[in-house]
């Protein structure tokens, strides 16, 4: 429904080129800050439909606030390979790699994707500004570094119908675009790059474009996407989807080692469930020595999924005469996990998963207590009183549909 | 045909409760066979492509009360259960409309447009119904005790319930009693003044029941529907992606995961009874399967009067089953549409099309609709509960096209002169006209129309008299009386013959609950 309310406001925050559309669509006028931008929390008064759009239709998100850098030159590959933990040497043109990067102590600074745009040209995305880190480490190398954060803008189109929508617009079929690959194509006469990536753990794409084409691309997607259920989607729904997908969020699930202040706040990729992305066979990369040592002695922490058991949780509420009340959106408050009387970890984000019908969370747990299947006690506040309720350690992702990776036959 | 001829348990009927029972029994280590008469599983919870490219939840259309423990224990999300929220209830009126949405501020403002007093009362009404639902839930979750000759476990169950009743607050007790005894109209008159609001809420009290909103007892049926809002997981009211058939398929996949064999197009002719004991089933094609126990997911009339010979049963029990009220009162009109309905009172496409659309402008409208049925006619201006599944799930129809599900009341099974094609089409026309009063473009966008009378529901889905709940949800046939006194704990007068359909406690709707509790009782008895 539209009630014809007109709303204008002045802001000191940055506005994405999509703001002209998103501000009109945002019925709740709920916004969050994301890297200094005004970003929609949810467009409707409640986020539910947007969440289900991600999982059953197609959700359209403005992801302009991501930091983006172009690394170009004869040494670009060698430089990135040294900076991040993944093996950039085997990243083909048109391929995308998700990767963390670390400081010399093997503690994680940030995580993002590396796109190989050409043999000697890459784009790297990050959650926080990384220009200084990149420049510092590129000293003496034959390459140029460009901050692409404002010169390229992006939309994420996520959900089972996303491919059908793009196929109805793009000049080339997306049927053969594999998970974590990208392609150049056109929407009419507008050139766009489309990567099969996202932050939802579902079938989905990210569309990269020149800011001058932003509104045309938005309008095309909204128009052609309509019969497929395209839904402008805010960060609240995205937060639930990324928890279900077991994807970490900087400043929520971990703190960049560059800002950690104290050592205990830092985490290595091994302690964040990203051991698979650390390629020890590589000759050298920043943090390798420290990570080798950590691998040899074993990590102190693990990052795991937590499945909070329903029946016991319900009983806690029943005892005070209430139906179970969970936050309807994702939470981000650090919550203690116990084994016996000893705190052995803490959950950093969690939500009720409507698609899985489970109450789930992501947590840091001391390695001795982090085996899948083991039971911990999760701290729960019921009517102002602290209670402990059992939670099982499980592997992430919680939600991993086949369509995320598959291509049509 | 199944190569195995001998099973631990045979379930008659692949409806959602039969499949649930089968899954639980298989999960309990039993070798189970499900026999379904039709080509497709699901019973009344079925999705069929009636018109090319358009998928209809042909009979039941929303998932109201699916029991959370069943979802978890049978791992239904893993096997395809995906419930999308039905966010709003839209009541079009001649010059205005009423809408309630998932957002409390919006709902308050919308009701306050009509009555400020009602808007405030409504804020208290929902939580109160939630509290009452909490009070009723333990009853729904208890295997109904034998009230005449209680067993030891019946006494324990009775004691537990007694303690539960002692723990109720005075408010819970007061309203529970009122809801058990009153008509939904009387009950709602105590709360609200805006007629369309009252009529819309009361309408859930007549669903599947041959009663009007002013009939005593209708308030309980309303409560039964309210349970969907409080049961365990958030917003249990929902629309299953892919239609209600996808719920059945999720349960079937779970059953198969646990090792259940399922046969379709395998109509059962009779339960084979030997010395007062069920020993297997005979199919219509003459094949026989033996098993230690037999479970029927059919309604009580079919379970006892068709699957058995009356002579196998005690005569007082036969009388009880014959008296069991199972009057069909509803029909279904499913439409394939070229576009969306355009409501005069709220034109265009909007979020109001994403929830339930209820044609129920006043008590009088509903009562008049009921009057027609009392005297053997279908309602000339029927009550409609409409959803547009394709708005929630675009995959239900080709891009840009839509499907519409209209649940219609009242449509008596015993129509004057009997049902024929002409009457069916006249009934379909009455439904379209009732809708066209508020959305005149509907007549121009219909690509295909499927009209189901109670007689059609009976012949297609095996629902006696077309009753969607396998028997009305009225007090005299609930709990220890559903379907008959002494036989409400899923057992029957025939040894090793059990029942698990909606005609058993706690009754109808896509809940999985009768199937689950029957299977748990059977496993306990085994």
Question: Could you explain the architecture of this structure?
Answer:
- The complex is a heterodimer of chains A (about 400) and B (about 525).
- Chain A is built from nine helices and 19 strands.
- Chain A is of the alpha+beta class and about 400 residues long.
- A six-stranded mixed β-sheet of chain A has the order 10-11-12-9-3-13. In chain A, strands 14-17-16-15-18-19 form a six-stranded antiparallel beta barrel.
- The longest helix of chain A is centred in the middle third of the chain and has 12 residues, at about 215-225.
- The longest helix of chain B has 25 residues, at about 115-140.
- In chain B, strands 1, 2, 9, 10, 11, 12 and 18 form a seven-stranded mixed β-sheet that branches.
- In chain B, helix 1 runs parallel beside helix 10.
- Among the domains of chain B are: about 5-45 and about 65-80 and about 240-325 and about 470-525, FAD/NAD(P)-binding domain (3-Layer(bba) Sandwich), CATH 3.50.50; about 120-230, no CATH class.
- Chain B is α/β, with parallel strands linked by helices.
- Chain B has helices at about 15-25, 70-75, 105-110, 115-140, 150-165, 170-180, 185-190, 195-205, 220-225, 245-255, 300-305, 315-325, 365-375, 390, 420-435, 440-445, 455-460, 515-525, and strands spanning about 5-10, 30-35, 45-50, 55, 85, 90, 95-100, 240, 260-265, 270-275, 275-285, 290-295, 330-335, 355-360, 385, 400-410, 445-450, 495-500.
- The relative contact order of chain B is 0.20.
């Amino acid at each position: 429904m539209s009630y014809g309310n007109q709303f204008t406001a002045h802001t000191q925050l940055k506005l994405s080129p999509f703001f002209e559309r998103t501000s009109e669509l945002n019925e709740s006028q709920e916004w969050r800050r994301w890297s200094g931008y005004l970003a929609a929390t949810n467009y409707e008064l409640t986020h539910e439909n947007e969440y289900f759009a991600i999982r059953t239709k197609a959700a359209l998100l403005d992801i302009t606030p991501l930091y983006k850098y172009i690394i170009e030159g004869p040494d670009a590959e060698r430089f990135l390979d040294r900076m991040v933990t993944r093996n950039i040497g085997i990243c083909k043109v048109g391929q995308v790699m998700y990767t963390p990067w670390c400081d010399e102590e093997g503690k994680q600074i940030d995580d993002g994707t590396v796109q190989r745009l050409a043999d000697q040209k890459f784009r790297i995305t990050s959650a926080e500004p990384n220009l200084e880190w990149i420049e510092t480490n590129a000293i003496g190398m034959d390459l140029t570094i460009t901050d692409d954060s404002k010169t390229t803008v992006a939309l994420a189109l996520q959900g089972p119908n996303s491919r059908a929508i793009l196929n109805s617009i793009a000049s080339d079929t997306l049927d053969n675009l594999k998970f974590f690959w990208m392609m150049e194509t056109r929407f009419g006469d507008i050139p766009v790059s489309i990567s099969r990536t996202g932050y939802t753990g579902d079938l989905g794409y990210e569309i990269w474009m020149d800011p001058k084409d932003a509104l045309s691309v938005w309008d095309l997607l909204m128009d052609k996407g309509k019969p497929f259920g395209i839904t402008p989607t805010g960060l609240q729904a995205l937060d639930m989807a990324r928890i279900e997908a077991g994807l970490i969020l900087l400043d929520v699930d971990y703190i960049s080692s560059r800002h950690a202040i104290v050592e205990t706040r830092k985490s290595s990729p091994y302690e964040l469930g990203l051991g698979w992305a650390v390629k020890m066979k590589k000759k050298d990369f920043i943090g390798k020595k420290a990570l080798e040592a950590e691998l040899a002695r074993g990590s102190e922490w693990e990052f795991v999924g937590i499945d909070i058991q329903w029946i016991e949780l319900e009983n806690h509420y029943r005892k005070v005469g209430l139906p179970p009340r969970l936050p309807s959106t994702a939470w981000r408050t650090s919550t203690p996990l116990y084994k016996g009387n000893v705190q052995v970890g803490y959950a950093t984000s969690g939500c009720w998963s409507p698609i899985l019908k489970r109450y789930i969370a992501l947590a840091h747990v001391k390695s001795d207590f982090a085996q899948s299947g083991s039971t911990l006690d999760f701290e729960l506040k019921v009517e102002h009183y602290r209670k402990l309720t059992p939670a099982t350690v499980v592997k992430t992702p919680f939600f991993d549909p086949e369509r995320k990776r598959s291509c049509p036959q | 045909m199944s190569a195995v001829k001998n099973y631990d348990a045979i379930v008659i009927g692949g409806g959602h409760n039969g499949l649930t029972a089968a899954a639980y029994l298989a999960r309990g280590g039993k070798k189970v066979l499900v026999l379904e008469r039709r080509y497709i599983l699901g019973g009344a919870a079925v999705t069929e492509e009636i018109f090319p490219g358009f998928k209809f939840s042909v009979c039941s259309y929303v998932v109201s009360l699916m029991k959370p423990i069943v979802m978890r224990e049978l791992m239904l999300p893993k096997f395809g259960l995906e419930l999308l929220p039905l966010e709003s209830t839209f009541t079009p009126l001649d010059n205005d409309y009423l809408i309630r949405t998932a957002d409390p501020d919006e709902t308050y403002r919308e009701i306050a447009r009509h009555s400020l007093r009602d808007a405030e009362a409504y804020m208290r009404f929902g939580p109160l119904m939630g509290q009452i639902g909490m009070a009723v839930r333990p009853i729904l979750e208890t295997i109904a005790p034998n009230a005449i000759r209680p067993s030891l476990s019946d006494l324990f169950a009775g004691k537990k319930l007694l303690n539960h009743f002692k723990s109720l607050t005075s408010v819970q007790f007061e309203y529970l009693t009122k809801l058990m005894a009153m008509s939904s109209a009387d009950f709602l008159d105590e709360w609200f003044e805006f007629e369309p609001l009252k009529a819309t809420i009361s309408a859930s009290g007549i669903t599947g029941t041959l009663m009007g909103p002013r009939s005593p007892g209708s308030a309980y049926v309303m409560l039964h529907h309210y349970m969907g809002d409080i049961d365990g997981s958030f917003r249990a009211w929902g629309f299953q992606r892919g239609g209600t058939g996808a719920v059945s398929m999720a349960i079937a996949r779970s059953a198969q995961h646990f090792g259940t064999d399922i046969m379709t197009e395998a109509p059962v002719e009779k339960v084979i009874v030997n010395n007062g004991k069920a020993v297997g089933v005979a199919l219509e094609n003459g094949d026989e399967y033996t098993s230690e126990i037999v479970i029927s997911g059919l309604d009580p009339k079919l379970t006892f009067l068709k699957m058995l010979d009356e002579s196998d049963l005690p005569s007082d029990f036969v009388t009880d089953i014959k008296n069991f009220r199972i009057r069909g009162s509803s029909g279904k009109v499913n439409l394939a549409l070229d576009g969306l309905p355009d409501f005069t009172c709220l034109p265009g496409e909007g979020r109001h099309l994403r929830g339930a659309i209820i044609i129920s402008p006043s008590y009088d409208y509903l009562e008049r609709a009921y009057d027609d049925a009392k005297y053997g006619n279908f309602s000339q201006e029927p009550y409609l509960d409409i959803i547009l599944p394709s708005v929630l799930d675009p995959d239900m129809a080709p891009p840009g096209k839509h499907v519409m599900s209209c649940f219609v009341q009242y449509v008596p099974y015993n129509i004057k002169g009997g049902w024929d094609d002409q009457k069916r089409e006249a009934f379909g026309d009455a439904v379209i006209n009732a809708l066209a009063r508020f959305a005149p473009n509907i007549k121009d966008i219909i690509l295909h129309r499927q009209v189901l009378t109670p007689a059609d529901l009976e012949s297609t889905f095996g629902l006696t008299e077309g009753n969607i709940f396998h028997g009305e949800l009225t007090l005299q046939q609930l709990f220890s009386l559903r379907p008959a006194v002494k036989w409400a704990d899923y057992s029957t007068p025939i040894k090793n013959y059990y029942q698990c359909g909606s005609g058993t406690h706690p009754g109808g709707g896509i809940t999985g609950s009768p199937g689950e509790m029957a299977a748990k009782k059977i496993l306990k008895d085994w």
